[in-house]
Write the structure tokens for this entry.
Amino acid sequence: MSSTTFPEGFLWGGATAANQLEGAYDRDGKGLSIQDVMPRGIVAPPTEQPTADNLKLEAIDFYDRYAEDIALFAEMGFKTFRFSIAWSRIFPCGDEEKPNEAGLAFYDRVLDELEKHGIEPLVTISHYETPLHLAKKYDGWKSRELVGFYQNYCRALFERYGSRVKYWLTFNEINSILHAPLMSGGIWTPKEELSEQDLYQAIHHELVASAAATKLARELAPEARIGCMLIAMPTYPLTPDPADVLAAKQAEHANYAFGDVHCRGEYPGYFLRTLREKGIELDITDEDREVLKNTVDFVSFSYYMSICETADPAKKTKGEGNLLGGVPNPTLEASEWGWQIDPTGLRILLNDYWERWQKPLFIVENGLGAKDQLVEVDGEKTVQDDYRIDYLNDHLVAAREAIGDGVDLLGYTTWGCIDLVSASTAQLSKRYGFIYVDRNDDGTGTLDRYRKKSFDWYRELIASNGATLTDPS
């Protein structure tokens, strides 16, 4: 075993999103979000109104069962719990002046439970759930007006919870707007009709809003730490051909740009070149440039897979289920959903991010989606998910080794620590959790909770601060 250990105070936990677990889509004054009309996730166009086949409308009923679920997280020993606040619970349309008190009160209750169990909240302000009204009336983040609406929303959160929440993330996977403009940017214009000019202007508006939220948090919640959140995906050259190496570098630039702005406070030269070559002229004000200088305290990210890139058009095959494109790596195995499994890529990525930005890092999503089977063992229902244990073990070994390399890593929250509705396909059969939820893709099920084998594994891992990890064979 390596002599490297996880630091004292390392934040072990799990991660979720409001639209994937809360349910109660129309209760206590909540307005509709884009997710309420996306019954097939990103694989099909939205509907005009919520439909009965949208599993997210009920999800796993965390809205009523949050105390039960948080108690299970505490039983595992969670030090932190990442959840998002549903924007349309606080501002039902998104453009109101005053927040919905019933929505604020719900998250007060969630925070009460977390505090009771000594679990640190890690809050995502906007996680793929732009209010539907903002999407339809303003075309989402294409409109500069959303910067002001988002600031009003952030102000309500910081004023209400600023003394209770230490860690905030401004936007979930902000770079995903390049590939999923409706889900990520609330842009109602169909992707195939959206111009690059409008897409990049929307990106600029989100980046300005994120920096402005960072500035506002420092005024209203000075003890808080504000982070950005990225999809992290190492991109390797498919061959040693220098043309492939350059193609991989350019593909990584598309994702690095979002972190560079958050960490350095200005657009990098390679990004400005991309705009010039595309003939894009962004509306950037002097005030925007000043606001962007409000850089984040830490960088958080999701990590599920790596990809390859090539300059050879004949070899540009897309990996199954891969939101960001890329070429499958012929040396790696894949999950049931075609996501290539690469623990070493996490160590590479952590070193790259640390060396590039010199900001503390936080792994806020990582996990294995699989079709779990509920079985009975010694009279108890469970899932024998050794495949998940192996996946998490190997990725955490890579994270541990990155710490040994000198990386400042704040914590690790597994994605979907309790089974929830998939963002990409809106299925429940794609399960990530330590806790099995009895609900199926057709909407049937009791919603009862059952501990999987990985539940006890993670509990022991947290209790030992990572000492129970085993080196991959």
Observations:
- The mean pLDDT is 96.
- The CA atoms of residues 265 and 290 lie 9 Å apart.
- The first helix runs from residue 18 to 21.
- The chain has one domain: 11-463.
